[in-house]
Amino acid sequence: MALKYVVKKTVFGFDKTKAVKYVARPLLAGTVDYSALCDQVTKVGMAPRGVVKMVTDGLIDAIMWNLENHLSVKLGDFGTFRPAFGSKSQDTEEAVNAEALRHRKIIFTPGSYFKGMLSDVSIQKFEIPKTDETGGSQGGGSEDRPEIE
């Protein structure tokens, strides 16, 4: 298996010159919604769809309860969830309060199963063929396109 990437033209806000840069971004072909994921687990795990959904919903509820109670949740080789937030730095200890907190989030750290998968895959550039204005390919070949807009 190979992870694919595309090259994206970017202008970084912190760069005072506003120079154009190029960065690699992972290719995402779309999103699998919850219903489709339950269907996949049903086929692979041979458990009825209702059981898969019931267990998954219960897992989500249990994770939320534990995160709300200041606990990280480790799911074996799958990974760990933990609550987090950013904070504005303050000049005094007294100034650090709830208003200084921002960007509440849940951080997922992959476990050994996913880390192993990532270390074993190759990475390849995904080439998008150029098309003319009528939608047909130009030159019928595989021309390199360094960016996607």
From TrEMBL:
The keyword DNA-binding applies. Residues 128-149 are annotated as: Disordered. GO terms for molecular function: DNA binding. InterPro entries: HU-HIG, IHF-like_DNA-bd_dom_sf. It comes from Parabacteroides goldsteinii dnLKV18. This is HU domain-containing protein. Keywords: DNA-binding. Residues 1-125 form the HU domain.
